[in-house]
Each structure stands twice: as structure tokens, then as C-alpha cells.
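Much of the work behind modern protein science is quiet bookkeeping, done one molecule at a time. The protein below has been through that process, and both of its lines are reproduced in full.
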Amino acid sequence: GDNEFFTTVGTFEGKHGNTKATGYIGSAYKGSFSEIIAYTIISHNFDGPWYMELSWDRNIVETTKAINKNIMSDAIFLSADYEIHERWTIVGVLGSTFYTDGNKKLTQAGHLIYNILEVPGLYIKGSAKFEQSDKNPPEYFAPLDRWQYLIGPGYSKYFKKTNIFFQASYQFGRQNINNY
């Protein structure tokens, strides 16, 4: 139909020392509309308590109204993890999303994670996130101001033989949305 996008994607992964890069690049097309879609994440694990990630994502805004108007987004994010103690980790995230309709969104987030060492992979995470957009378009969700507070348990496990990472969490909390 008119709202269907087709994509072709190739993936990549590379590692040098403590730095790793992964991602994909491809194209999305619908009729005469064609755009490059891509995602990359560069991570560095410092010899110590710090871990950092820089990511960039170019993609289709996935709502019917946005697809009909061929709205794309470019997002860039920087996150830093600091292991305070083997049980406690603090994470900070700062990012911006730029939409092809001229909208911009700023995201700031923080997470405090308590690792339950007696059950490897089990944790409790508290999160706070603030997002601010230039405009609130009818084609996709981008409120002018949004505050979100969440807390809850989670579990993660990495299966080294198959290179599969599993994660599940349940969080509850509150969010405030202001569209003026």
C-alpha cells in the first residue's frame, strides 16, 4: 500500500582494544521516496569504573501520519556509566533528536542502578528523564515538555557462546506532559 516502507540493511561490527563500534546502514524507500537509514554506536570501556557510549541514529518516524509525510529523524546521544561500587552504578544520558519537519527534541536522563550480587543479573533501577521539543506535531509524539520518573526491577544476561544479550524489566512511575 501507500504507507508501506521497504528497507535493505547491512550490519557491521568492529573492535580495537577497549573501543567497539557496531551498527547498520541501509535504505528505506516508498514509491519515489528514498532515504538512507543508519545506526552506529561507539563504546569505550575504560580501565576503571567508567564506560561511555556515543550513538547516532537516522531513521523513519514510525507513525502512519509521519510516514505519509516522509518524516525522518537524526538522533545523537552520549551516555556515561560510573560504577560507584560493585552494587551501585550511576548513568547519565544527554541527547538531541532532529526531525526533517524542523522539530528538535532535547533529552536528559539519569539512572541509579542497584545490582543484587546474590543473584547475578538482577537489579533495581530508578530513572528520571526530561524531554523538551520545539513543537508538538500531530504526526508523532513529541510533547513540548515531558518529565518521567520510574523505578523497578530488571534482569539481564549475556550468552557469550551465541553473542545474545537478554534483558527484561518492569518499571512503574509517573510522567508529566505539558503541551502548553
